[in-house]
Amino acid sequence: MQERMHLMSGDGPFIRGTRDMSKRYNGVPVVAGAVKRLGIPGLRFTDGPRGVVMYHSTAFPSPMARGASFDPTLERRIGDAIGVEARTQGANLFAGVCINLLRHPAWGRAQETYGEDSYLLGEMGVALIEGTQRHVMACVKHFAVNSMENSRLWLDVQIDERDLTDLYLPHFKRCVDAGVAGVMTAYNSVNGSPCGQHQKLITQTLKQEWGFDGFVISDFTWGIRNPAAAANAGMDVEMPFRWRFRALPRLLRSGIVSAERINDAARRVLQKQVEFGAVGEPERYLPEVVAGSEHRELARQAAQQSMVLLRNEPTQAPWQERPSSSGQQIARESAPEPLLPLNPSRLNSLAVIGWLASEQNIGDLGSSQVHPPSVVTLLHGLTAAGSDHGIDVRYHDGVDQSGAVALARGCEAVVLVAGSSYRDEGEWIIRAGGDRSTLRLSQHDEQLIEAVASANPATVVVLMGGSAFVTDTWHDHVPALLMAWYPGMEGGHAVADLLFGVSSPTGRLPCTWPASKNTLPPFRKFARSIEYGPLHGYRFMEASNQVPAFPFGYGLGFHPLSWSDPVLESVTEQTAGGFTVQLAVTVTNNATRSGSEVVQAYIAQSRGSSNVPLLTLVGFTKAQVDPESSTKVSVTLQLDELPEIIYLGENADPNSHLPINVNSD
Asked: Would you state the pLDDT for residue 184?
């Protein structure tokens, strides 16, 4: 029995281990429940989700960026790479599947999740699990209703059970149904009970109703408040050290915690270790694979596909008419061309402005921090691309506005980089990170954008950050606006690829970008209690008759694609209940460059405590369309009930939707 209780907590010394983690978090695997006598390796934990946080691993784009890809196939490949690097470096548990729903864009750790929509969260979370669990166990987190950072340790979220069930739990159930090995509880309380000892969430919902056969682990150190309450609620493992669960022997002797409960926890932990001990591809677990060329290239592809082009308006820059290098005169088009992609054969000089361009800006400094061997900054990537094309790339940090404006006037085009860094958002570590104080850029950056765009109309603004910005006070003054998120270790090359047209923008917003006059759900950084209602994001916008600056699912390509012939292909009733619905639409690309489209399916649904039917995402398909061709794009939906109408659209804005009647005779 003593060894069984040993399985239920981390193995390291509490004081020394805490001190070591304060110097370098999770630099090596965090081991829990190793039993040398029996050859039990224990859980060997590595955090995420940007990659493996141990040692010097590949830093992929942040999950919010990867959510913008709307590409589960790509996320599955990233999961596979992460699983290989975790296994190679001694871990058997990747606890980086973060699927907390983004209720408000000011959440400091928004960068760690995939967006504001439960369906998108479920699809991307499952893809990451399927990729990583080819090699190691995966753990999904933070269960549940975790979406405020500064007050996470003491916050009590008051929420109607219907809202909890319909909005905040479906994506977790989707991951459980996909076979995730572990679930990590959150720090916050739900309706008065801390998540780490929430009997209804852990035992009744997760283990009994959903049939979860894996193990439940606490969030680190402060994830358990009361050892008896946590153990009896179904907590299986205290992480990362044995602190609260030191009381288990006493609680067992007194009968407060039963032997049956301890046996259940031990069985769950051992069962998954045995199951995943037989999983893997040993021939791939080589040291040179970690942050090697193959994974770097994947990180670059992921960054390319995650970036969202928000504006690309025509300009009349003189360099756009310059003769090409062959001497052939470029004739003026009947209308000016959009600024992007920049044509390197016509461009001699490029100004890069903004201190973030030279910063290794890949995310916060908290538990998700990855330590890659190198990072390609945006300045590095643009300078390298400029060198390849014979373009003189000049840099100014933008701190002195007059100097930046002078450089902008002296160059033919400008890339201005602004946004957020670990200083502004992320896991709160007192002097850095935390929830955002504003969704706007700093006053300095907004003024710099206005001044530089006035000096040079061929200005591209590239934003970096983990969530939405309010841009409508200035974005009409710049022809091109690109959201790069936290783009990972190859982000600089990916931005250059996109700006110079080596790749095309394919990302779509995984969260609503509000306008400056929009109202949002309540959010208080240091709240002790807060009420979560049934509305947020794009459903909140529709319910309150508000128009955001950029809707959920929005994103431009270098040229528009046209849609036609929406059709209902099939409806199949499933024997277990529900329906499989197949839809299709023809997407046409008349341009000479390939294009990409994300066909999104919405139905009007009432969810949670709101009885108002609102458009809700129920499916999507990302498709590539070859130049000067058409392709039929199919979307498959799994629905509990058949609606009268299903809408296919480019984003959550109803004006982009094509209706398909389902129940018509």
From this structure: 98
Does 514 fall in a domain? no
Residues 262 and 353 grouped into a single domain: no
Same domain, 252 and 356: no
Q: Is residue 547 part of a domain?
A: no
The radius of gyration computed from the CA coordinates of the chain, to the nearest angstrom, equals 25
| Token pair belonging to 44 | 């060997």
Q: Do 456 and 341 have their domain in common?
A: yes
Question: End of a domain among 485, 509, 533?
Answer: 509
Confidence of residue 613 (pLDDT cuts 50, 70, 90): very high
Percentages helix, strand, coil for the chain (3-state, rounded to 5) are: 30, 25, 45
Same domain? 90 vs 182:
yes
Domain containing 570 equals 562-661
Tokens matching residue 528 = 């002790």
Give which of 431, 434, 82 is closest to 290, Cα–Cα. Answer: 82
| CA dist., res. 283 & res. 178, Å (int) | 26
Helices and strands (H and E) in the chain: how many: 17, 23
Rounded CA-CA distance 298/373 in Å is 16
pLDDT digits (tens, 9 = 90+) for 165-213: 999 999 999 999 999 999 999 999 999 999 999 999 999 999 999 999 9
What is the per-residue pLDDT across 348-361, written as a single tens digit (0 to 9) for each?
999 999 999 999 99
30 domain-assigned: yes
Considering 289, 320, 344, which residue would you say is the last residue of a domain? 289
Q: Encode pLDDT of 521-566 as tens digits.
A: 999 999 999 999 999 999 999 999 999 999 999 999 999 999 999 9
Cβ proximity of 128 and 75 under 8 Å: yes
What residues have CB less than 8 Å from 280, skipping those under 6 apart? 87, 134, 135
Same domain, 219 and 159: yes
pLDDT at 446 over 90: yes
- State the total domains in the chain: 3
Question: What's the rounded Cα separation, in Å, for the pair 259 and 433?
Answer: 42
Are 217 and 317 found together in one domain? Answer: no
Query: What CATH number should be reported for the domain holding residue 440?
Result: 3.40.50.1700
Q: Is the pTM of this model over 0.90?
A: yes
Chain mean position to CA 194: 26
Same-domain check for residues 316 and 269: no
Each residue's pLDDT tens digit, 231-281: 999 999 999 999 999 999 999 999 999 999 999 999 999 999 999 999 999
Return the closest-CA partner of residue 458 out of 474, 473, 480. Answer: 480
Question: Are 326 and 278 in the same domain?
Answer: no
Cβ neighbours around 392 below 10 Å, total:
13
**pLDDT exceeds 90 at position 431:** no
**Mean pLDDT on 563-590:** 96
**21 domain-assigned:** yes
* Strand, helix or coil for residue 350: strand
Q: Which residues neighbour 588 within 8 Å (Cβ) at sequence distance 6 or greater?
A: 561, 562, 563, 564, 625, 629, 630
